[in-house]
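Consider the tokenized backbone below.
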């Protein structure tokens, strides 16, 4: 069967596709950036990548029409706290208009639980997308999930940040909001088992875990699981804006995403009971079991996908890395260094492990200060870390950088800066003909950009010299 998966490079899509391929299906993935997707799915067979953007209806013409089932996993909530709902509905409308001209029999849509009488913009948008996707030309199956718990999920990582960083928490009142967390493995099972299941045609189900918990209870159970003693005090007068800043500074989320999440976290996410678990023979796991499985993945360094690798985790890139792969030359400042390579394999292993827990090989204190300043002004800072300690794919987040090009065989790694600065910056490592080349390029924006470069240039001399020297060491 030929199956279409939208949102293929997203948190859910990257985990669902291998399940479909293992079943022998041909998976068609319309993506905005084919090169990025190729780096994710290079090991997979029976996958067709098509460059398309559902915000641009004309770009959908190359998608095959002989698809039988489609998964709709497109979400735009973090692009802008003000306009994401407009983007989501536009994507849904363009998808529907395209889908009605194909051989589609079923569309499976992952939404959010929307039973509260007063919904946030985020949840109301999900509800409106479901209405938009409904069609007489194909059957729509909708699963509405609450908080998804799994390695790399935004909910899991935010809870992890809060619990592991703060022994005592002065927290906003939305921590008393009730929800029903659902493990990522169960989410994937619902989506997987719904494929071509005619009993689920034109139906909508809430899917949720077995426990009703407040966010406070989730934090405390997480702390207990990690054997951490934590105290939480609720402050009822904390405004949504202050709550957003609290979430932004404590966790690795962007401020825009924090603001959107805060608006949603005041809404109870309690599902309506149904017979869906019986129909699909699924027994959702407990919150504790979901945590256990998440940490197993973390310990094994086998996190398949992370919300931090989404372009919207910084807000600086919007779907294409191609436009940054050619480092500009005109009107740029450069810090260029080279060293004769002592051992190519060791050097490339070090380059591929840079950032995250490894650090930047020299001037760690200065990197942390730069990260703090970036976070203070609304940037990503160093909080995102990296998905895997030694693997890098195009599009991965790497502290306050984004991976633009990564080819170990060719010996080249190119990073694009997502930090707040008056200009654009690239950092490139290249090993060629026995020489390691390290180049930092900065394209200033106006006078402020030039002043910024000259202000940090003394630090660059120490940091970049130390970095290339340590990368080139044999130990």
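A designed sequence for it:
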């Amino acid at each position: 069967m030929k199956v279409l998966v939208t949102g293929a490079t997203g948190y859910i899509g990257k985990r669902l596709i291998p399940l479909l391929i293992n079943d022998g299906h041909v998976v068609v993935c319309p993506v905005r950036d084919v090169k990025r997707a190729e780096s994710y799915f290079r090991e997979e067979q029976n996958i067709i990548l098509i460059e398309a953007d559902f915000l641009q209806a004309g770009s959908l013409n190359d998608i095959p029409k002989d698809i039988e089932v489609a998964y709709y996993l497109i979400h735009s909530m973090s692009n802008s706290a003000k306009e994401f709902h407009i983007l989501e509905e536009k994507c849904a409308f363009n998808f529907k208009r395209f889908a009605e001209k194909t051989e589609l029999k079923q569309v499976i849509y992952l939404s959010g639980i929307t039973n509260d009488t007063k919904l946030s913009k985020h949840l109301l948008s999900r509800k409106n997308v479901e209405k938009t996707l409904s069609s007489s030309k194909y059957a729509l199956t909708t699963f509405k999930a609450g908080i998804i718990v799994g390695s790399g999920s935004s909910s899991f990582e935010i809870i992890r940040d809060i619990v592991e960083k703060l022994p005592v928490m002065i927290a906003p009142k939305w921590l008393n909001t009730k929800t029903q967390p659902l493990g990522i493995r169960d989410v994937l099972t619902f989506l997987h088992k719904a494929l071509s299941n005619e009993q689920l045609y034109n139906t909508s189900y809430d899917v949720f875990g077995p426990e009703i918990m407040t966010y406070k209870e989730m934090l405390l159970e997480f702390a207990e699981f990690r054997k951490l003693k934590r105290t939480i005090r609720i402050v009822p007068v904390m405004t949504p804006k202050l709550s957003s800043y609290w979430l932004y500074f404590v966790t690795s989320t962007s401020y825009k995403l924090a603001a959107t999440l805060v608006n949603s976290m005041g809404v109870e996410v309690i599902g309506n009971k149904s017979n869906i678990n019986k129909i699909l023979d699924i027994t959702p796991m407990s919150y504790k079991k979901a945590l256990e499985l998440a940490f197993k993945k973390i310990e094994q360094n086998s996190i398949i996908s992370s919300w931090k690798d989404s372009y919207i985790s910084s807000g600086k890139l919007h779907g294409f890395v191609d436009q940054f792969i050619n480092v500009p030359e005109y009107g740029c400042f450069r810090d260029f260094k080279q060293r004769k390579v002592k051992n190519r394999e060791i050097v490339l292993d070090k380059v591929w492990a840079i950032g995250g827990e490894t650090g930047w090989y020299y001037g760690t204190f200065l990197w942390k200060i730069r990260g703090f300043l970036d976070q203070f002004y609304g940037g990503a800072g160093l909080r995102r870390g990296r998905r895997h300690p030694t693997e890098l794919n195009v599009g991965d987040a790497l502290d306050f950088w984004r991976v633009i090009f990564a080819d170990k065989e060719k010996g080249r790694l190119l990073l694009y800066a997502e930090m707040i600065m008056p200009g654009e910056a690239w950092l490139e490592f290249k090993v060629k003909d026995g020489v390691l080349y390290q180049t930092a390029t900065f394209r200033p924006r106006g006078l402020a950009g030039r002043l910024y470069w000259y202000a940090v240039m003394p630090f660059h001399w120490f940091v970049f010299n130390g970095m290339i020297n340590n990368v080139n060491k044999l130990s």
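The chain has a mean pLDDT of 84.
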